[in-house]
Structure formats: structure tokens, C-alpha cells
Amino acid sequence: MKAARRALITGINGQDGILLSDHLSKNGYEILGIGTQEGKSSFLNPSVGYQKIDIRDTATFTSVVDSFTPDSIYNLASISSVARSFEKPELTWEVNGYAVANILESLFGKAHHPNLKFFQASSSEMFGLAAVEPQDEEVVFHPVSPYAESKVFALESCRKYRKQGYFVASGIMYNHESIYRPKSFVTRKITSGVAAIKKGEQSTLQIGNMYAERDWGYAGDYVEAMALILHANEPDDFVISTGITHSVKDIVTIAFDEAGLGGRELEFLELDEGLLRPKEVNRLVGNSTKAYEKLGWKSQKTFEQLIREMVRYDLSAK
Ligand code: GDP
């Protein structure tokens, strides 16, 4: 019998790690997850293996690759909050940037694993204040946060090894959300906050910039794009987005409506200036034509379906 294909996923305990490991498990993959927490998330399938490793520890990481011998690595580990990256720029650069370059050098530069396929989770934040809209793969990056800077550095490193002939690919992913999104991100903060208000557990909801606009998609659709990117014939970078923007205010409107509190937002919302960012990206919108033409991928779940589902989950959660 042919041995199962193996995938190693860093950042396994995060939203995308959980959803990607489900998707790959269903497709017959054996999975080893890596994270920095003591144990693995209770949302992960029991069949998913787990090791506690900091991806900055290149030697340990490489030794795990040597023993697990994966066909593919999905690098999802990162300091994922833009807001936090302003507070901890050094850590953000180390984890999201240098660690990736070090791993690539160890796997490919030192030619330890020339046949591995490597996926890098890149971010729409790299476009930052880009003058062009919608953004596709040709648009010049204009990062304005340590998070975005670190992701640009990692992607440039990926491109370097790709030019040398290795299968190093990337998804430039716009904001993607699900019930696994931590409450520090604005979608889940709002859906969980509205549910808590409805249940009488909370009386106000503090929000920062209500007018920021993002291209929000469903994370379950985005992890499918990651797998397609690694199964393409050639390694490349792909913008993964819905092509439609909404504002933070739109999330609020839909979430209050789903909870049966439609039109009563102003009774509960409070502007918290502490939540405004030192430098804000006001609006992002992506163009995923290349992903559609080359991978057959397009986003499926609408923004409204997504927000309503997240509210229903938070209303039913204990
Ligand atoms: P990001 O786009 O990766 O930074 O994802 P977030 O969900 O953290 O933020 C999306 C947008 O929502 C940004 O423009 C934030 O400034 C804005 N925003 C407004 N209020 C809040 C809030 O209370 N928390 C967070 N995280 N973002 C907020």
C-alpha cells in the first residue's frame, strides 16, 4: 500500500491550522502540527499529531522535518495581529520574517529537502497604502505595520528560493474569518460581543475605527486555496480574496440584526480611541482572477452568510 502523503503545518492551533488540517485529513493526508502552546487545540481532529516548537528554533524544526519527512509544509505560524505587531515589532520581525528565511535556507539553501513543497501564508496587509485597487499579484507593496513589513520580507525570501528552482509558493490572503477566529480580530469581537449583549452578559461593545474597509472572506474557502496552490504544476504567488469590501460598520449592522437587536446598535456601541492604530490601512480589496484562472478557485461563502453564522455560533456557545 502507498504510504499516506504527509503535511506539516506550523501554527496548527490557529484558525487556519484547524481548518486546513480538517481539509487535508479528509483528502488522506497524515498531519503533524507545530505550535508554541503546551498542547494542541481541542478543535483539532484527534488524528493530527502535535509538537511544541518555536519556528525560530531552526535546528529543532529541521530535525522534525528530517524525521517526519513531509511532502509539503504549510507555514501558517505568525504573530498574526497587526495591532500587536505595533507593540512587539522585534518579535513580529523574528517570527514572521527571519524565522521563515532561516527555515528556507535550511531546507533548500543547504539542500536538505530539495523536493519538499513549501506554502507561505502571505497577507493583503503587505499592500498597505497601495495606490492601486483592486490589488493583484503585480501591485507594488506599501507596508505600514511591522506585521506587513515582516510578511514582505518572508515573501521575498520565498521568491528567492523559487528562482533557484524549489517549489516555494504563497497565498496573498485577504482577511478571512470563521468561528475559530480569536476575539482580538474585529469580526469575532463583534459577533461574540453582540451575542454576549443578547444573553445579558455584557452591556457595551467597544470598537475602534468603524469605517475601515476590508475584503473579508470565509477561512474554510481560503484553506482550500492553500492546498490548490501547493498542488499546482508550478510554484507561484496568488491573491486570495472575494473582490468585495465591507466596513466594520457593516459587520455591526448584520451582527445586531442576526441577534434580534437590529437598529439598536447605538445603545451599545462605544468608540474606544485606544483601539485606533498608529498607522491604519483604511481599505483593501483584492483581485483573485489569477487564482480562478490557474487554480479554479473562487470564494464561495458571502460576507453576510459568514457574519450571520458566526453570530449564531456565538449565541449558542456556553
Ligand atoms: P487586520 O485587518 O488583519 O488588522 O484585522 P482586524 O480584524 O484586527 O482589523 C480589521 C479592521 O478593523 C482594522 O482596520 C481595525 O482598525 C478595525 N477595527 C475597528 N475596531 C476594532 C477592534 O475593536 N478590534 C480590532 N481588532 N480591529 C478593529
Explained architecture:
This protein has 318 residues and is of the alpha/beta class. It has eleven helices and 13 strands. It has helices at 15-26, 58-68, 82-87, 89-109, 146-163, 186-198, 219-231, 248-258, 265-268, 289-295, 303-316, and strands spanning 6-10, 30-35, 49-52, 72-75, 117-123, 167-173, 176-177, 205-207, 213-214, 217-218, 237-240, 246-247, 269-271. The strands form four sheets. Strands 3-2-1-4-5-6-11 form a seven-stranded parallel sheet, sandwiched between helices. Strand 1, helix 1 (15-26) and strand 2 form a beta-alpha-beta unit. Helix 6 (186-198) runs parallel beside helix 8 and helix 8 crosses helix 11 (303-316). It is globular, with a radius of gyration of 19 Å. The protein starts with 5 loop residues before the first strand and ends with a helix. The model has no long low-confidence stretch (mean pLDDT 96). The site of guanosine-5'-diphosphate (GDP) has 16 residues, from helix 3 and helix 6.
